[in-house]
Amino acid sequence: MRKVVVSEYVTLDGVMEAPDKWSFSFWSEEAAKFKFEELFASDVLLLGRVTYQGFAAAWPSMTDEEGFADRMNSLPKFVASATLQETEWNASLLKENIAEEVSRLKLQPGQDILVFGSADLVDMLRQHDLIDEYRLMVYPVVVGSGKRLFREGSGKQVLKLSETKTFRSGVLVLTYHPA
């Protein structure tokens, strides 16, 4: 059975919104290696509409010698959206019964199902107990406002810390599983 892995950039105050505005100064070879290994351990991307549209606008024109961009561009993508009418960039649309569709994806053979960003989708997946692992890259910055990974009123959920990594830049990678 495949795992749904939620991989997020978050600030110390829990904000996940607009990482392009606060994460780049902490980028390092360690972070690049971590993201490379994570992407290559996956064979599907699961994205919400907003994240998908941002990625689809940027990634197709990207290249690199390591093969990260090729992998990102070639992976099948599933986009959860009630409003999007069509997709491109090797993507299929999930419009209805998203939790059921994700459950079916998990039953298929393969590698991890990787979720980046996609706050609304992550919230829905969490409510349906479909997330097998959280990988939180915690950046040593406080931004004060913005969309948070775990929303106010989302209810209690106990997670078990299973791994930690510390990068020289001060970024922590905290890996949690539902308890």
Description:
- By secondary structure, the chain is an alpha/beta fold.
- The protein contains 5 helices and 8 strands, in the order E-H-E-H-H-E-E-H-E-H-E-E-E.
- The protein has an 8-stranded mixed β-sheet.
- Strand 7 and strand 8 form a beta hairpin.
- It starts with a strand and ends with a strand.
Summed up, what is this model?
The protein has 179 residues and is an alpha/beta fold.
List keywords for this structure.
single chain; 179 residues; alpha/beta; eight-stranded mixed β-sheet; 28% strand; globular
Compile the SSE list and pairings.
Elements lengths: L3 E8 L17 H12 L1 E7 H10 L9 H7 L2 E4 L10 E4 L3 H10 L4 E5 L2 H9 L5 E7 L19 E8 L5 E7 L1
Parallel strand pairs: 1-5, 1-6, 2-3, 2-5, 3-4
Antiparallel strand pairs: 6-8, 7-8
Number of helices: 5
Q: What percent strand?
A: 25-35%
Q: Bin the helical content.
A: 25-40%
* Strand order of the biggest β-sheet: 4-3-2-5-1-6-8-7
Radius of gyration: 16 Å
Unreliable stretches covering 5 or more consecutive residues: none
* SS content category: alpha/beta
The CA-CA distance between the termini, in Å, is 19 Å
Largest β sheet strand count, sense and barrel closure:
8 strands, mixed
* Global shape: globular
- Name the average pLDDT: 95
Number of E-state strands:
8
Order of helices and strands: EHEHHEEHEHEEE
